[in-house]
Amino acid sequence: MEVTDYELFEIPPGLLFLKLTTSDGETGWGEPTNLPYSRTVKAATTEVMEKYLLGEDPLRIGDHWQAMYRGGYHRDGPILMSAIAGIEQALWDIKGNHYGAPVYEFLGGQCRDRVRVYQRIGGDRPEHIASEAERAVEEGFSAVKIDATERLAHIDAPAVTDHVRQRVEAVQEAVGDEVGVCVDFRGRASKTMARRLVTHLEPYDLLFVEEPLRPEDIASFPDLARHTATPLAIGERLYSRWDFKPLLDTELVDVVQPDISRAGGISESMRIAQMAETSGAAVSQIRPRSPLALAATIQVSASIPNHLIHDYGFPGQEEVHDYFDYSAFSLEDGYVNIPDGPGLNVDIDEDRVRELDAIEVDQPYPLRRHPDGSVAEF
What we know:
alpha/beta
């Protein structure tokens, strides 16, 4: 059996899907999305497929990962690792379908019966966020995640800090102390503001603070961790085990957050989780942008002993992603059942995917500015 064909689909609002086909007629799906650069990742995925994977045995996943990563002089980074991630997910899907077993069976088998997930909540006003948090709990979630703030100056006014506190307080008052609350700084805080904010949020016993520092300030992470007892999570913009290693070596990271579609796929996410376990860190995989990435994420979470919780997706995404059957990923009491179907257990309406691919996708360059006109963090 060999890989004989591939197709790439651009799906609104900028997702990228990959379909692999083998000489035996078996297929596998993967998602190499990296917004807003999905078209760049599409070009990288095409190059890897054309220069290497076509004609190869799809079952030799470990060898293919090494070849895709080490086959070129320049490696790592968000573009190549996203391309590898999507290809590798599709190879795992083929392997599972070929042997009639879920992917997690090849990763060591299940470590749990179900996977805890949280719901992301958008919005800015505390009352709106609190209302959405209540709705998420009513829908069955036992944890929610909110953004800390839209943008931050290097050293900002006390009112900004107070606004962050009000958001957290409003959510906790709305949902009670049995619901976990995560706060995402989105790397918008300088190391100075990060220290100030985590200190002010200390009384709220948060599940964790996500990406308290931007990647450029990651060397300051150990110092920040020593200033707070609040669990700190990081990893959305790290792309391989070598990116995570310096942080994990400090043993001060509480939660690591590899992205299944950016950090080299399923195999690399497993390796990062294993490294985290030796450093006493939990794993909260980050941001599956579509049901396809969610399916791959669940395979890893089912297989690792140090899974904490991970993202389920945006509210109402069942309607947005109408090309996917969600029934295998039902939510109950804050957990998603682990599907027992073969491969990634994805049921995709390919005709609908092709219809969506025909739509021109606009991927605006997200740019925020401070009041003085200078560029703010994403």
